[in-house]
Amino acid sequence: GPKGSLLVPKMDKVEITISGNQINLQPADLLQQTRMNWGTMWSLINNALEGVTKEFSKSLEIEGIGFKAAVEGKDLVLKIGFSHPVRLPIPEGIKITVEKNEIVVSGIDRKLVGQTASDIRKQKKPEPYLGKGIRYKGEVIRRKTGKKAGTVTTK
């Protein structure tokens, strides 16, 4: 496609025929495992075609006082409240842009985009009391009340 090319692994007992601009998948038999492989192949090919035509992207938000992110060379540098900045290497085929408190991960491989976004979020998951951390855009974090707000004192 216009954005690049991807290789999709072939699954057992699924026949692939390409005619013109159409890809047909046929299961060799109707066993449950073959039908599962057929559906998986369909999803993998569909994701590859979508990725090479319009790219996938995931957005993350950084929430917390003094929390920052920046791209330096081939690394994403996160300042997220530790005594040292966290450096994450950016994988081949992934583009990361940072604007204020938003990190956008984009690329043609859906699996790699999701894994990279997950690795970034894993560095500082949002905590339930103040909500500080790295979260997916639009992700709702269930908040908890602190122990002072939850107790009733009687004398």
TrEMBL record:
Recorded family membership: Belongs to the universal ribosomal protein uL6 family.
Pfam family, one: Ribosomal_L6
InterPro entries associated with the record: Ribosomal_uL6-like, Ribosomal_uL6-like_a/b-dom_sf, Ribosomal_uL6_a/b-dom, Ribosomal_uL6_bac-type
Official protein name in the record: 50S ribosomal protein L6
Role summary: This protein binds to the 23S rRNA, and is important in its secondary structure. It is located near the subunit interface in the base of the L7/L12 stalk, and near the tRNA binding site of the peptidyltransferase center.
Annotated organism of origin: Candidatus Wolfebacteria bacterium GWA1_42_9
Record key words, sorted: Ribonucleoprotein, Ribosomal protein, RNA-binding, rRNA-binding
Gene3D superfamilies registered for this protein in UniProt: Ribosomal protein L6, alpha-beta domain
Keyword Nucleus: no
